[in-house]
Design a protein that fits this description.
The complex is a heterodimer of chains A (108) and B (193).
Chain A (H helix, E strand, L loop, with lengths): L1 H19 L6 H9 L8 H9 L6 H9 L4 H32 L5
Helix pairs in contact in A: 1-5, 2-5, 3-5
Chain B lengths: L4 H4 L3 H14 L5 H7 L6 H13 L6 H14 L3 H15 L2 H9 L8 H16 L4 H9 L4 H24 L6 H14 L3
Classes of the chains: A mainly alpha (108), B mainly alpha (193).
Chain lengths: 108, 193
């Protein structure tokens, strides 16, 4: 089990860094992008696409974010927060389903 | 790429490293590497630790199997850069590019083991729909895949759902087929560190 722990621990460290480490965007802004919730309107199309349909992101989505006053460094951080957030939800959903599948029997 | 900082925010040491990579491989540094080295304290340093652990850390899955999972998840996400990178890497790792192409063309008829097939099916559903249930997991486990292998596959899935999103959002430039093969060789030799 040690190796499984190492993978999940490395993932937790990544999530913790993105949400709570130093950055040019605030922890609150990063938390919103991470959870794709309560994102300010100029950023919403970009963040929502990163989370739900990344292949459809366009130059115009970045231009709208920049025009509303977000710096390149802030956009860099918030796009990463959105990508890591969606992936974390998938990871958690998979692990929860696995726990449920093995809860009543012997864990393989 | 869509942000200028991804083309210029590097330390002198990183600039030297990029020059060495160009000299060593004969190709420009892929945008995937630029992302990892851009302000590494924010994302790259932790991201590469997690990705390396998922892709090269101890697992009952082979490196080739995990590269195939990366290619498959990227295909579901329609991420052209990552599909090409990990198709090339899985093909080299298996020494069988036809097998990788067959899986990406039609998972159900591809010549792979039932355990790998059901695992890929589950990862595809999770990536596409955002959820899987206990029944999906029981199907994987009943095909002979261990609980630990499922956890390992979910780590690969998490790593590439992140990378795929960033590749498409930031606009990673596609390489030539030779460039992707050179990148694959590098990933098999050095991993993701």
């Amino acid at each position: 089990m040690a190796d499984e722990g190492k993978k999940q621990a490395a993932h937790r460290a990544l999530v913790d860094r993105i949400l709570n480490g130093e950055g040019r965007s605030s922890p609150e802004q990063r938390a919103s992008a991470f959870s794709n919730a309560d994102v300010p309107p100029p950023l919403h199309p970009l963040i929502d696409k990163v989370a739900t349909r990344p292949a459809q992101v366009t130059d115009a989505d970045f231009a709208a974010a920049k025009a509303s006053g977000f710096s390149e460094d802030q956009i860099f951080e918030l796009v990463i927060a959105a990508a890591v957030g969606q992936s974390a939800r998938l990871y958690d959903a998979g692990l929860a389903a696995l726990d449920e599948a093995t809860a009543s029997g012997a864990a393989g | 790429m869509r942000l200028d900082i991804l083309n210029r925010s590097y330390s002198p040491g990183t600039k030297l490293l990029f020059a060495l990579i160009r000299a060593f491989t004969g190709y420009p540094v892929p945008d995937a590497a630029k992302l990892i080295f851009c302000r590494p304290g924010f994302y790259g340093a932790q991201a590469k630790k997690f990705t390396h652990e998922a892709m090269r850390g101890p697992s009952a899955w082979s490196v080739a199997d995990r590269e195939l999972m990366a290619a498959f998840v990227s295909k579901v996400n329609e991420c052209a850069f990552c599909v090409s990178t990990h198709t090339a890497t899985a093909g080299q790792a298996y020494r069988d590019s036809g097998k990788v192409q067959a899986v990406l063309a039609d998972l159900e008829s591809a010549p792979i083991e039932p355990g790998l097939r059901t695992t890929l099916r589950m990862l595809g559903k999770l990536t596409r729909e955002g959820k899987v249930d206990a029944g999906d997991m029981r199907e994987v486990l009943s095909a002979g895949v261990s609980r630990q292998q499922v956890e390992d596959a979910l780590a690969v899935c998490a790593a590439f759902n992140t990378t795929d999103r960033l590749a498409d959002a930031f606009g990673f430039e596609l390489l030539s087929p030779q460039g992707f093969e050179a990148g694959a060789k590098y990933l098999l030799k050095r991993g993701y560190r």
